[in-house]
Amino acid sequence: MTKREISEIKALLQSPKKIVIVPHKNPDGDAMGSSLGLYHYLKLFNHHISVITPNDYPNFLKWLPGDELVIKYDNNKAAADELIINADIIFTLDFNALHRTGNMETILTEADGIKILIDHHQQPDNYAKYIYSDVTICSTAQMIYHFIDMLGDLKLLNSNISTCLYTGIMTDTGSFRFRSTTSTTHHVVANLIDNGADNAQIHNNVYDTNSYNRLQLLGRALNNLNFIEELNTAYIILSQKELNKYNFQKGDTEGVVNYALSLKGVKFAVIFIENQKESIIKISLRSKGNFDVNTFARQHFNGGGHTNAAGGRSELSLKKTVEKFISILPTYKNDLKS
Ligand code: 5GP
Ligand code: MN
């Protein structure tokens, strides 16, 4: 973002505005942490702010400060459309293309409000007036911190802002262990702790609130682990029947793919999750090193994301989706073996 753009945004925020903040569909920790972190920052001024998510998000995020104010588009469409159409400013966070908001795409495309995109995914679309895109930053939450810094307002960090941003950074870095975690990330996080983020409590709230069923489902997933040793690839399949057996709740499969990636030597890990309601197979892809799952997901599974973490979907059956995957794999033999 240029200095001129920052001063334009600063001028824009000088007087009370109607603001809408939107993260991607199926919001994760970074989507919610960055949205609510920005909310608490803007709240310090006299704006009218709404956080509107395309749909619901996991229970392990429902303790975030401001959670009770979040409007879910899929069951409040009329009221949300009104807020979006009347908004002076629309922040779109943690996604790179409006279709990532699912059913909100149409209304967001139509809305006249000034759009500000803040995101760390590859290849952002050009729908926003102001674009702060940086694929080298680990999380959108860290970008919100830098955004507040660019606006000269780090002195305004409070415990609500810090708690939300810490949560986004923590979840998108796999608790500060992915390659995207830099010394800057640690400096940012240190400052968030100094300004009221209770790090041990946040870890507990997000990671140590599992239901018994969720852990049983994880056990099932680990039993379903397949390992293609010669291609350094591991994958997990979860059918709708298995999800039902363990009373699947949103978020229960979050992070499961990382167990496949933790197998010694594995460079490429995938989980296929059947979603009968949407008639799709949701696919999460992870890699170590240079194997680019963003490109893989874009080319074969209608998705995208980052080099080492991406998502996608398939409209084939579960069985056919996995067969397709297995048939494609050998063409990547050189990348996966080296
Ligand atoms: P996950 O596998 O956890 O759903 O997503 C991994 C990463 O890829 C996240 O950063 C997520 O935002 C992104 N992602 C997931 N699904 C899609 C998709 O369908 N399209 C694009 N462009 N990115 C995705
Ligand atoms: Mn993110």
Automatic annotation (TrEMBL):
It comes from the Bacteria. Residues 18-169 form the DDH domain. Residues 245-325 form the DHHA1 domain. This is Bifunctional oligoribonuclease/PAP phosphatase NrnA. Pfam families: DHH, DHHA1. It comes from Pontimicrobium aquaticum. InterPro entries: DDH_dom, DHH_sf, DHHA1_dom, Oligoribo/pAp-PDE_c-di-AMP_PDE. One of its GO terms (molecular function) is nucleic acid binding. Gene3D superfamilies: 3.10.310.30, inorganic pyrophosphatase (n-terminal core) (3.90.1640.10).
